[in-house]
Amino acid sequence: MSSNSYLWVLLIAMIDAKQNFQLVLDNPIVENLAPELVDEIDFRVTQLNNRSYLSTKLRLKQKSKFRFIFDKVNVKHSAPELVEELHYSMIQINNRSYISGNLILKRNISKMDVNSCMDFWKTDNKKVRLYNLHTDTCSFLTMVHKNPIMSTFSKSLKKHTTGDFQCPFKAKLNYTLTNWYLDEQDFPNYVPEGTFQTITEYFIEKRKIFRILTTGRVVY
Predict the structure, then answer these.
(1) Confidence band of 14 (pLDDT split at 50, 70, 90)
(2) What is the band of 23 on the pLDDT scale with cuts at 50, 70, 90?
(3) If we measure between CA atoms, which residue out of 98, 116, 106 comes closest to residue 201?
(4) In angstroms, how far is CA 194 from the centroid of its own chain?
(5) What percent of the chain has pLDDT over 90?
(6) SS3 at position 115
(7) In the listed set 19, 38, 60, which residue is the last one of a domain according to the structure?
(8) Structural domains in the chain (count)
(9) Is the pTM of this model over 0.70?
(10) 142 three-class SS
């Protein structure tokens, strides 16, 4: 619904003339609990011929057109005996960020721990931690769907990945990510404007192997 259109609903309280009682409506108290979605809402009651007429006016805001912009991606590893090849890149095209990369291991990995967190700062600089995870990678891959944010990221990544990310991670297999971006259609109509940061670290026997840092913004 456009911002210039109105949705009018007229509700009439019908009172049977044969009854000895009458139903009279007072003006309702209305509170807008979703100002990011609703531009105007109004309820009014008018009285005419001993009958109450209730009318409402609702105007929705136009769907916001936000974008996820990545400002920085940094991937490091500290295990040359484990990693044969690791490359990554990021490009900006038409106000959208695309990330690509690949990973080839020298040997199989059957057990690896992961620490991952994501922080979001609204425009008032208020910080919100969206998730904070500490688990082994195999469990992470099986439980990722339980967190809505991480599930959205995971499904998005799978669309742009070759090489199935599941345990065990195989040697000599080229795990490739091609032109990955965050599709706004996978998210609610409204996402607060602000900045975000994710830090993900992988460990083998308490030794840090990989560290992935991303920073970005939600813009309108």
Answers:
(1) very low
(2) low
(3) 116
(4) 13
(5) 50
(6) strand
(7) 60
(8) 2
(9) no
(10) helix
Rounded Cα distance between 151 and 160, Å, is 15
Measure the CA–CA gap between 188 and 218, rounded to whole angstroms.
Answer: 13
| CATH code, 184 | 2.70.220
Decide: 25 and 14 in contact? Cβ < 8 Å.
no
Please check whether residue 218 is in contact with residue 192, taking contact to mean a CB–CB distance below 8 angstroms: yes
Answer yes or no: do 55 and 17 share one domain.
Answer: yes
Quote the CA–CA distance of 138 and 41 in Å, as a whole number. 49
**Same-domain check for residues 52 and 71:** no
Question: Which residues, at least 6 apart from 40, have a Cβ–Cβ distance to it below 8 Å?
Answer: 57, 58, 59
Structural domain boundaries, residue 76: 67-219
Dist CA 204 CA 108 (whole Å): 12
9 alpha-carbon distance from chain centroid: 33
Token digits for 106? 């020298």
Helix (H) or strand (E) holding 139: helix 137-143
Q: Are residues 212 and 182 in the same domain?
A: yes
